[in-house]
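Let us practice reading a record.
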Amino acid sequence: MTLGERLRKRRAQLGIEAKVVAERAGISPQYLSDIEHDQRRPTDETFLKRLTLAYDLSDLVLWYYAGVLPKSMYHPEDVSDEAIFGAFIAFDERLWEIARHAHEVTR
């Protein structure tokens, strides 16, 4: 599923019009339409942050959708937002465990 398809699906889940999302993101409805129809592909972190707020998504989920994360983090199958977010939470927790262990070893 493409970024645009995912964002259109998310907007439908929220039950809001494109105009509302565009207003929330501070962009024109046409620019949003271009993104939702994969004619533009945003990668700027500040702009992606505005989209996370407009679509009520976590940063990590939108970054995943936008393809700005390392390729090793991508799953070949279409997965739910919740599964993506859960995987990032688990990954983050594991990194903290490793960091705590490394700190204890160096003491």
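A brief commentary: Residues 3-105 form a domain with the 434 Repressor (Amino-terminal Domain) fold (CATH 1.10.260.40).
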